[in-house]
Design goal:
alpha+beta, 7 helices, 27% strand, globular, binds 4'-deoxy-4'-aminopyridoxal-5'-phosphate
Length: 309
């Protein structure tokens, strides 16, 4: 089955929200395109009951030459492969690469959030997934901003991050219930993002982003074994030479600037953490500008990070 095979069963409909398009957005699903709204997952889907899946969050950007490119696609898919390996889901990076590029082209999305998901389907409702069928889909959404453009009010959660010794910091679906709990908790206090700290008061990460601070013009990347090894974090360290080290919660409160980074969050200044307000975002804005130029292909030195669509 070619990656470009359209789903013969999908009727061509005029999408209501986008009158100029004659087909609704498509999702790549097990080697073919299906309508994004189609319900292909049965109610007995294993992943729905236990979170037995692995996902990625990837961005594609319109580039100034009129094309578009996916940022650090091989690194995202390698992380996904590692998660799949742990769950015994066969994952072919080449197939996922082609699927990602094909669905971006199919949907005509240049600035997009890309969501691959590999999951355990049906076959058993027990916890041994070896006999359960496995699936892969890739969806694209016109750019979805996670935190950009909003005032970020971080609240320290009373929940602990999943310890790496229990749940490896990879993008395993079920692990994100931990993030959902923390976000739900701090929203009641008027915050829009949660910060995890460990029992010793060391900063771990946010629900979907890594943390940095600026002190005396030096940029420090928060390091913690329970945090996801973020690709944006790695990018910012490579671009700025930031030091990576453990950071205590009180150091973060004392910092001149704090910012969070992630594929969806990009580089976003933190306005408040608990009762502390950060007025200065000078260094963060410089880093955010540099990151923006890199992902859009305006920094030829870093063109190796872009996979052209
Ligand atoms: N931490 C968590 C828990 C995340 O979900 C994400 C988003 N993937 C990040 C950090 C940032 O990772 P990346 O820069 O690879 O998107």
């Amino acid at each position: 089955m070619s990656l470009n095979d359209a789903d013969a069963a999908a009727p061509a409909r005029v999408a209501e929200a986008t009158p100029t398009r004659t087909v609704p957005p498509q999702v790549w699903f097990d080697g073919r395109f299906v309508d994004a709204g189609s319900d292909r997952a049965p109610l007995t889907t294993h992943a729905m009951h236990y979170g037995s899946g692995v996902f990625e969050g990837i961005r594609a950007y319109a580039t100034s030459d009129g094309g578009s490119a996916v940022f650090r696609l091989p690194e995202h898919l390698e992380r996904m492969r590692q998660g799949c390996e742990l769950l015994g889901i066969a994952f072919d990076v080449d197939v996922a690469t082609e699927a990602t590029l094909a669905v971006l082209r199919q949907n005509g999305h240049r600035d997009a959030y890309v969501r691959p998901l590999a999951w355990c389907g049906t076959g058993s409702i027990g916890l041994d997934v070896s006999s359960v069928d496995k699936h892969l889909m890739v969806a694209t959404f016109p750019t979805n901003v996670h935190l950009a453009g909003t005032r970020v009010k971080l609240g320290t959660s009373s929940w602990r991050r999943n310890p790496a010794s229990s749940l490896p910091p990879l993008k395993l679906c079920g692990a994100y219930v931990n993030s959902i709990l923390a976000k739900h908790e701090v929203k009641q206090r008027g915050c829009n993002e949660a910060l995890f700290v460990d029992e010793q008061g060391r900063v771990v990460e946010c629900t979907g982003a890594n943390v940095f601070m600026v002190r005396d013009d030096r940029i420090i990347a928060v390091a913690h074994r329970d945090a996801l090894a973020g690709i944006t974090r790695d990018t910012i360290i490579a671009l700025t030479g930031a030091e990576s080290r453990p950071v205590r919660h009180d150091e973060l409160l004392d910092a001149d600037e704090v910012f969070v980074v992630g594929t969806a969050a990009e580089v976003t200044p933190v306005d408040e953490l608990d009762d502390r307000a950060y007025a200065d975002h000078r260094v963060v804005r410089e880093v955010a500008d540099l990151y923006r130029r890199v992902v859009r292909g305006d920094e030829p030195r870093h063109a190796r990070w872009l996979t052209r669509v």
